[in-house]
Amino acid sequence: MTTTQSDNFDHTPAADILISALRQEINRHIIGHQDLIEDLIAALLAGGHVLLEGVPGLGKTMLARVVAETISLDFSRIQCTPDLMPADIIGTRIVMQQEHGARQFEFQPGPLFTELLLADEVNRATPKTQSALLEAMEERQVTVGLEQHKLAETFTVFATQNPIEMEGTYPLPEAQLDRFMVKLTAQFPSAQALATIVDRETIGSKAKVETILQANMLSALRKQVRDIALAQHVRDYAVSIIVATHPSETNTVADISRYVRHGASPRGLLSVVLTAKARALMQGRANVSFDDIDAAVKPALRHRLIQNFEGEAQGLNTDDLLESVLHATARPSA
Amino acid sequence: MTNNSIPHEDQLRARLGAVVSALHYACLRQHAFAHISIGVLVGVMIAIPCVLISRFGTMPVPLSITEVTLACIAVPTGLALLFALRRAPTKMQVAISADRLLNLQEQISTAWDYANRQPHSPLTSTLAKHALATRLPRRVADVFPVELGIVFKLVPVAGLLLLIAVIIDLPAQSVTPVPNRSASTTHDSTVINEGEYLREFAHQLRARANREALYRSQEQARALEALGTRMQDGSVTRRQALAQLRQMHTQLEAARRDALSQGTSTEEVTITPDSQQGGNSNQSSRYELEAMLRSVTQGSAPTQSTDALLSAADAAAQLGISEADLLAALREHQSGDAKALQNLIDRAGEAARSRDDASALEQAQDEVARSRSELGDRLAQLRRNGRTGTQQPGAARNDNPVDDEANTESGDNHSSAGRSSDGGAGIGQDDASGSPNKRTNKRGIRIATQAIRPMPLPGVGKVFSATTQTLPQQNTSAIETIEVNPAYKQELERIQIVDDIPAHRKAFVRNYFLSLSRATSTPRGETLTETKR
Question: Where do the structural domains in chain B lie, given as residue ranges?
Answer without folding.
Answer: 9-167, 189-266+356-438, 267-351, 482-533
